[in-house]
Amino acid sequence: MMNIGHGYINTVGITLKEGRGFDPILEKTDLDHSVIVNEKFVQDFRIEDPIGKRITVADTLNFNIIAVIKNFYPGGFWQPISPMALFLSGPERLYYLVVRASIEDLPDVNEFLRSEWLKVIPNSPYEGFFQEERLTEAKDINKNIKYIYIFLAIMAIILSAIGLYTLVSQYYQQDQRNRNTEGSGIINYKYCIVT
């Protein structure tokens, strides 16, 4: 479950598969009675024709499904997609401000947000971050996993080569012992290898 504001879906670029988003005109109804779910929610709970269906939360709160959104990764690409329900919340229950801006405007927007933050809440540190930082973390984890697999592949090749060398050496020693026991000398053995 996730509490969101009116513009969240458009700001982060979530695709609406069917239905409508939260409407400022219907805010009272949407606050108390509406929910948006993702495809995984519909699939896991086997809901057919989900728009208009009622779900119950915490055994007492009833919400009507007003939209289905495409699946997305809210916490990172390494976490599996889980069923999600988005609820419209008032400002008292929202904890993050999400801003969308063009790449060239990001530093200016971030500086503006920092200065406004210090005006409104001077005793609390500004902890803004770029979504790219979160994606970089996911990329670093994937890169490290790739390096681990490359290392393991190289070690497997080295161990296989050592094992093959050991088998050939044992075969050569056993063959040499057999030839020595049968009476053939080393000179004859070398002659057999050359020809």
Structure in words:
The protein has 195 residues and is an alpha/beta fold. It has 3 domains: 2-96, no CATH class; 100-128; 131-194. It contains 6 helices and 6 strands. The chain has helices at 8-12, 27-33, 39-44, 106-120, 131-181, 186-194; strands at 2-4, 16-19, 34-38, 54-57, 61-69, 85-88. Strands 1, 2, 3, 4, 5 and 6 form a 6-stranded mixed beta sheet that branches. The radius of gyration is 32 Å and the shape is elongated. It starts with a strand and ends with a helix.
The helix count comes to 6
Average pLDDT metric:
86
Distance between the termini: 78 Å
- Backbone structural class: alpha/beta
Shape: elongated
Total strand segments = 6
Number of separate structural domains: 3
Rg: 32 Å
H and E order = EHEHEHEEEHHH
Helix percentage = 40-55%
Beta-strand percent range? 5-15%
Low-confidence stretches: none
Oligomeric state of shown chains: single chain
> What does the largest sheet look like?
6 strands, mixed
